[in-house]
Amino acid sequence: MEVLMAPVLWATVVLPTLLAIAFQILGFRSRQSIRVLAYVSALILLAPVLLIAYYLGYRRVGALVDPLVLDLSAYNIGSIGLVLDGLSAPIAVGISLVTALVSVYNVKYMEHRIGELHSEGVRVPGLNAYFILYNAFSSSMLGMAYSSNLVGFFVFLELSLITSFLLIAFYGYGDRLRIALMYFIWTHVGGALFLAGILYYGVNVGSFDILVVDTMEYNRAMARVGIEGLAVLAPLFIILGLLVKMAVFGVHMWLPYAHAEAPTPISALLSPNLIGVAGYALARFSPTMFPQFVADIRDILVFLAFVTIVYGGFVALRENDFKRFLAYSSISQMGYILLGVATLTGFGVAGAMLHYLSHAIGKAVLFMVAGVFITEMGGLRNMMLMGGLARAYPTIAAVSLIGFMHLVGMPPSLGMWSEILILLGIIRGYNPGTPLTLITIALLVIVAFMVTATYSFIAMRRIFFGPLRQGKAFEGGEVMDEFKVTILIIAVSGVIAFLAVELLLEPLRTSVSPLLELVGGG
After folding, report:
1. Cα 48 to Cα 77: distance, rounded to the nearest angstrom
2. Can you give the residue ranges of every domain in the chain?
3. Which residue, among 184, 521, 514, 199, has the nearest Cα to 344 in the 3D structure?
4. At what angle do helices 230-246 and 322-342 cross, to 10 degrees?
5. If 387 and its partner were Cys, which of 112, 294, 442, 469 is the partner (CB 3.0–4.6 Å)?
C-alpha cells in the first residue's frame, strides 16, 4: 500500500467538471476553446492509467490510497476515501482510457449533433454545457471505481444517473425525452434497491466501509454479527439493484432504447463502462459482506449469466440498426462478467475484471465507428444499407475488426485472456468430477462462445464486405482526422493491453485472494 503525496485521485474526479464549469463562466465558447477544454479534460481523465502503469504495474505496489479522507465515523458512516488496487485497476483503466479519448472525439460529433437539433428547430444547451455534463458523468464513474465506502459509491452512482439522463434527454435521438425517462426510472429502481440494501446493512453493522483505508483490509463486520434478516434482505436488495444496473436478462428492457438513442459518444460510455461498473461492485461487495448468501445463490447467478449471454447474442443477430445491435451485444457481454464473478473463484473474478476492460475497449471502438457513419454518411445506421465500406473506410474497417475480436476473445485482444480466466473459474468452481458435468459445462461454454462469434462476424461482414451500397460518394478516400484517430488509439491500446496483460494480472491476483477468503474461493 502506498499513500499518495497529493490528492491525485480526488483531482481526477473533481477537476474535469470544475474545468468545464470555469470555461462556461468565463465565456470561452469558440471552437478552439472547446477543443482546448476537450484535450485538457482528456489529459486529466487519463491520469489513472499512468498511475496504475507506474505504481501497480511497474513498482508492484499493492494499492494506492488518496491522502484526502472524509472521516464520518461519528455518524456511523465510516471513512469516505478513494483507493486504487488490483481489483479496481482494470475498471479504472477502462473508464479512464475511453472517457479521455471520447472527450476529443466529442468535438466533431457533438457539433454535428447540436447542428442537427438546431436544424429541427430544437434549442439545446451548447457544447460548454455538454462538456460540464460529460465530464461530471466521466468523473462519477471513476469515483465508483475508487470508492472504499458504500455511501461514497452510491453518491457517485446517483451522479452518473443524473448526468447521463440529462445527456440523453438533451442530445439524444428519436423520442429522446421518453427514452431518457424510461432509462431514469429503470436505473433509479436499481439504485433504490441498492440504497435500501446498503442502508439495512450499514445501520445494523454500524459502518458503510468496504475497505478499511488505513490497513487496506476488507470490512469483516458481517462475519461477526448475527442480525436476523440482515444476511438475506440486505444482500438481496443490493444484488438485485446491481443486476438491474447490469441489465442482465429479465431486467434488461431499458438498455437497448437508452444506449441506442443516446448521443453516440455517450453510448460509447454507457454500454461498456457504466453498466459494467455494477459487475465490479458485485465482485467488490458481495463476497466479503455476504459470503454465505452469494455462495448459496451461485448456481442461480451462473445460470442467469449463461441465459444473458445467449439471449443478448440471439437478439443482436436479428437487429439491423447498428447501435441497437451494439446495445444487445452489451447485454450479452454483461453475461460474461456476471459469469466470472458468480464462479466465486480467483480465476473467474480476475477474468471478469479483465473482461470489463476488454469490453470497454472493444465496444467503445464499435460505437465510435457507428458515430463516424452517422456524421459522415447522412445518419446511416441501418446495416442492411451498408456493405463494402472497407473500400471507403479501410482504417475504420481494421479497427472495427479489432473491436469485434475483443468481444469474441480472439488474439490479439484482451478478451482472449479474460475468457480463458473465466473458463478456468468455471472449472475451478464446479470441479467437474463426472463426465456428465464436464459435458454440460463444455456445451454451455461452446454455445456462449459460438453465439458471440456469430453475431460479431456476421455484423462485420454486413457492414464492411460485399458490394459498396452507398455508390461513389467516398471515392476521395478516407480522411484520418482527430475524430477517427481517437478510435485508432483505443484499438491499439487494446492490443497493447493484450501484450502487457501481466501488468494487470499480478495486482489482480494480490487483490482477489483476500476478497474471496470468506466464501472459500480459490
Report:
1. 27
2. 2-515
3. 521
4. 150
5. 469
Could you write out the three-class secondary structure of 274-343? Answer: HHHHHHHHHHHHHHHHCHHHHHHCHHHHHHHHHHHHHHHHHHHHHCCEHHHHHHHHHHHHHHHHHHHHHC
Cell of 230: 440482515
* Cα(105)–Cα(103) distance, integer angstroms: 5
Q: Which of 189, 10, 185 is nearest to 84 (CA)?
A: 10
The number of beta carbons lying within 10 Å of the beta carbon of residue 237 is 20
Q: Using CA atoms, how far apart are residues 196 and 187, in angstroms rounded to an integer?
A: 14
The beta strand positions in 131-251, using DSSP E, are: 211-212, 217-218
Q: Which residues pair with 70 in a beta bridge?
A: 80
The Cα 394–Cα 429 span in angstroms is 43
Q: Alpha-carbon distance 35 to 322, whole Å?
A: 28
Q: Return d(Cα 240, Cα 193) in angstroms, integer.
A: 7
User: Are the C-beta atoms of residues 185 and 140 closer than 8 Å to each other?
Assistant: no
DSSP string over 417-437: HHHHHHHHHHHHHH---SHHH
Q: Are 481 and 396 in contact (CB under 8 A)?
A: no
Residue labelled with grid coordinates 458515430? 371
Give residue 114's pLDDT: 93
pLDDT average per 10 residues of sequence, the chain (522 residues): 89 95 90 94 95 86 88 85 92 96 95 92 91 96 94 95 95 93 93 92 84 66 57 86 93 92 94 89 86 88 95 94 95 95 92 95 96 91 91 93 94 93 91 80 91 94 86 63 94 93 88 75 61
Prediction pTM value: 0.94
Cβ-based neighbour number of residue 419 at 10 Å: 25
For residues 50 and 306, what is the distance between their CA atoms, to the nearest angstrom?
A: 35
Distances 205 to 69, 209, 220, 289 between C-alpha atoms, Å: 21, 10, 10, 10
C-alpha distance across the termini of the chain, in Å: 23
Grid cell locating 198: 446498503
Q: Give CA–CA dist 239/245, Å, rounded.
A: 10
Helical H runs in 120-149?
127-146
